[in-house]
């Protein structure tokens, strides 16, 4: 696909997203690759690129995404000459959002750029390929979700799944839950914080005890 002066006259928008907070902490390379698309936009002829990264830590499977909405607004207002993402799954994990993006880009002549190529949604062949990429991304998400659910079911069958522990108790080993040994009151230990005052130094225990002498907090 040839990039025209009309595309270059409008801006290039780089959409950056990672699905979970855990990915933000443990998978910085994906984020670096996505931010690196701004340099690719400049190599393709744009003077600069607008990076939209408000959706870091948000899933692309249908929850509210202010960054994606901001991107759609830029496309509809004719400010976007191209949208850059490393792959279809970064833009959307469901067919509704993906096909909405393709439709809007086709209406105003905005290109979609990923690591594999440059696509013009107005062209039937490019539109077909983009649709297939979105469908594959959605299928991949469904498969991953099914695997995760089955793994949880396996843990349930073994009696090893602890999604939450009752207040006043902690997990102490396989298939075992016992009373919180840190604090004698029936409150979660998470309620105690080092920034709070000593339980015994106040009339009421900072972690919830009714009587200060009944708490074993240091």
Can you describe this structure in just a few lines?
The protein is α/β, with parallel strands linked by helices. It contains 8 helices and 7 strands, in the order αβαααβαβααββαββ.
Task: Explain what the structure shows.
Helix 7 runs antiparallel to helix 8. This protein is an alpha/beta fold and 218 residues long. The chain has 8 helices and 7 strands, in the order αβαααβαβααββαββ. Strand 4 and strand 5 form a beta hairpin.
Write the layout of secondary structure elements.
Elements: H1 5-9, E1 11-15, H2 21-26, H3 28-35, H4 37-43, E2 49-52, H5 66-76, E3 80-84, H6 88-91, H7 95-108, E4 111-113, E5 118-119, H8 124-158, E6 169-173, E7 176-179
Parallel strand pairs: 1-2, 1-3, 3-4
Antiparallel strand pairs: 4-5, 6-7
Descriptive tags:
disordered C terminus; alpha/beta; 13% strand; 41% helix; 8 helices; 218 residues; two-stranded antiparallel sheet
Number of helices: 8
Question: Terminal Cα separation, in Å?
Answer: 68 Å
Biggest sheet descriptor: 5 strands, mixed
Spatial ordering of strands, largest sheet: 2-1-3-4-5
The sequence of SSEs as H and E is HEHHHEHEHHEEHEE
Number of strands: 7
